[in-house]
């Protein structure tokens, strides 16, 4: 049987989907080999969120073809879903598969191989898309494409995809065009996957998707528009989380990125009532200036965002709030940037991902006047990155002297000593020594990975890793 090499670019959803694809191929008899070596088939799960992502996707496809010119190179996902005919006719691409056909990739590949044996495939657009069937109009799709994970590469934490698509249409974002409208996964399918992973020993699950705050809007009969403007926004997601928390064997539930407006008193209280929910919330901000937010077509103000953070901090004890910020968005003045800087300082985030705005062809923002020079973007990025490091260190430092609990994951060797490393509920990394003498006749045993271990924080092992005594 043929060998297959897999490579992922982009988000956690992409990573999840590629794992499912790999497991399906293995079940069909293919054997998986490292991407860095020679393979019969290379599958690149592409990304197109920025022009840089496009370039990386092209580079990886070209690299695969260069490693084995006789191999079949399969371009999968966002890059080809958004691809012009010129992109798809790249000689490095033999087969192109769109986002909503990923679940069928083994069957598509089998059909492609059969056609190739009979000389039916070629480098034309029809040849690369199985007569225009492997890439279809994703905007017309209304049903979730079921993909289930049997196992994970990580030994402790499993990512579970609960929905696809986005209806928000932020002015800088191409994702709604390549992922389509919101499509939610059936709760019974999600719970079956969670239960299966729990049986395999996974203790932590992360509910992820393209816009998980919109989970269930299609179940409520809404295919278009903004689910969070109504009074039922978040109800389906909260009900799902409650059901996941009842699965035996699962100790922790994390949530992917949340729309700020989903955080209501009711929603936060519902989460706080579930002991398995980790007090770690990623609320995407993008800007702390209302004028910039309006140009971005974000659907909240800085004040409304602040109110949502206050709700979380009232419902949970010292929750970890993380975020994303874009600097150098078109027309962003120095005054607007300073508003964002002041707002970020006030919010005191645990972590903040800072991105320099990158014009994405095909979006509203790319055509806006007032594009900001790269040098100014770099200056503003440096300011926020320095602030992020200060705030993140302060959040971690507050744990010194306090008891914490981590889910152990891997080991770290430092200066000749071994440490077991894991994350707290708030996703702070911590470690403890695994070969320290306890007394004259014993050693502290290594608990191994995937164990919940409590201890008291004594300081820092490294800048971003707490040291704990158990």
Explain this structure to me?
- The structure is a single chain.
- The protein is built from 14 helices and 19 strands.
- The protein is α/β, with parallel strands linked by helices.
- The strands form five sheets. Strands 2-1-3-4-5 form a five-stranded parallel beta sheet, sandwiched between helices. A five-stranded mixed β-barrel has the order 13-14-15-19-18. The chain has a four-stranded mixed beta sheet with strand order 7-6-8-9, sandwiched between helices.
- It is globular and about 70 Å long.
- The model is unreliable at 437-441 (pLDDT under 50).
Outline of the structure:
The protein has 470 residues and is of the alpha/beta class. The protein is built from 14 helices and 19 strands. Helix 13 packs parallel to helix 14.
How many DSSP helices?
A: 14
Q: Average pLDDT across residues?
A: 92
Strand order of the largest sheet: 2-1-3-4-5
Rounded Rg: 23 Å
What is the number of E strands?
19
Helix residue percentage: 25-40%
Shape estimate = globular
